[in-house]
């Protein structure tokens, strides 16, 4: 089970994000999917996930995610990922800067019946904002 769950999560990073094939959301994620992000951010459902991911792919069209480490136990998969891309599109109200970013993320995924039902993700959001120049360096 653990290896199969790891394969589902890795497929999301490889096919869904790196190959930008968002149609795999319907195959890999449960209809009642919930994403818990930094702070109090919560995204509900496949449509919410698709919208969030599309906003990042618009802002960083060359986004590439590298799975650094992945461990699994039972229904949980923990994945450490490094994302790299260039801020060539609008990111919310932040105009494109052309600056390169590299951000590390830790994601805990919970799966049921071969589908991702819930994710908890933490990433260096402040570091990303500093790299694109939206927040001054410390």
From TrEMBL:
<dbReference type="Pfam" id="PF07366">
    <property type="entry name" value="SnoaL"/>
</dbReference>
<dbReference type="GO" id="GO:0030638">
    <property type="term" value="P:polyketide metabolic process"/>
</dbReference>
<dbReference type="InterPro" id="IPR032710">
    <property type="entry name" value="NTF2-like_dom_sf"/>
</dbReference>
<protein>
    <submittedName>
        <fullName>Predicted ester cyclase</fullName>
    </submittedName>
</protein>
<dbReference type="InterPro" id="IPR009959">
    <property type="entry name" value="Cyclase_SnoaL-like"/>
</dbReference>
């Amino acid at each position: 089970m653990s290896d199969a769950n790891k394969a589902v999560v890795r497929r999301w990073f490889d096919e869904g994000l790196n190959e930008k094939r968002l149609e795999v959301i319907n195959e890999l994620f449960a209809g009642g999917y919930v994403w818990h992000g930094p702070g109090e951010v919560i995204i509900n459902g496949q449509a919410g996930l698709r919208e969030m991911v599309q906003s990042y792919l618009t802002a960083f069209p060359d986004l590439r995610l590298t799975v650094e480490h992945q461990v699994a136990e039972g229904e949980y998969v923990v994945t450490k990922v490094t994302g790299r891309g260039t801020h060539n599109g609008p990111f919310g109200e932040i105009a494109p800067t052309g600056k390169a970013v590299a951000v590390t993320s830790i994601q805990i995924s919970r799966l049921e019946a071969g589908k991702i039902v819930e994710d908890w993700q933490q990433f260096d959001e402040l570091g990303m904002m500093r790299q694109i120049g939206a927040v001054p360096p410390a």
